[in-house]
Amino acid sequence: MGLNCSDVCDNSRYGINCMKKCGHCLNDLPCNKQTGFCESGCNPGYTTTNCKEKCPVGYFGDSCKNKCSANCLHTTVCDHVDGACYHGCKKGFKGNRCQEEDRLSVGTIAGIAGGCGGGFVLLVLVIVIIWLVRRKKKQQGFAEVKMSTITSSKDDETAK
After folding, report:
1. Model's pTM, two decimal places?
2. Which one-letter DSSP state was computed for residue 14?
3. Same domain, 42 and 8
4. Residue 36 structural domain
5. How many domains, the chain?
6. 51/29 Cα distance (integer angstroms)
7. Do 85 and 114 belong to one domain?
8. φ, ψ for residue 116 (rounded to 5)?
9. Using CA atoms, how far apart are residues 39 and 41, in angstroms rounded to an integer?
10. Are residues 3 and 44 in the same domain?
11. For every one of its 160 residues, what pLDDT tens digit does the chain have, with 9 covering 90 and above?
């Protein structure tokens, strides 16, 4: 109440001479003008009867009932209002609260890279085999030409 309890405090204040500030009352409703008590409860992320204290570390939301995700990088630290993980997610998880599986995690990317590397090695192997087969056929062709040249030379000598 205001001076001499004659003036009514505005909606964000309470107590003698309206010196105290209301807490985080649900839906920003005014607190009790004498006690500061939030009669309808607290906004998410706040607790106690006057809604001035944040949820304890590791909890968040309505009445601080929700625990921070075990998938947060530091499981005891999340936003007291919405539960968002301050320091990010453990490997394999994503999203504000780290509750979604990250299908493209580092292990998956490594697997894809390994598969691509294996495919590259296989391609090189196929090219080398093709090159060797062609080389062998070319050598056989030269051997046949050489044999036919030798045979024709012998035929020419016998014809003389």
Report:
1. 0.59
2. E
3. yes
4. 1-54
5. 3
6. 12
7. no
8. -65, -40
9. 6
10. yes
11. 545 566 789 999 999 999 999 999 999 999 999 999 999 999 999 999 999 999 999 999 999 999 999 999 877 789 999 999 999 999 999 999 999 998 865 555 555 556 666 778 888 888 888 888 888 777 776 555 555 555 555 555 555 5
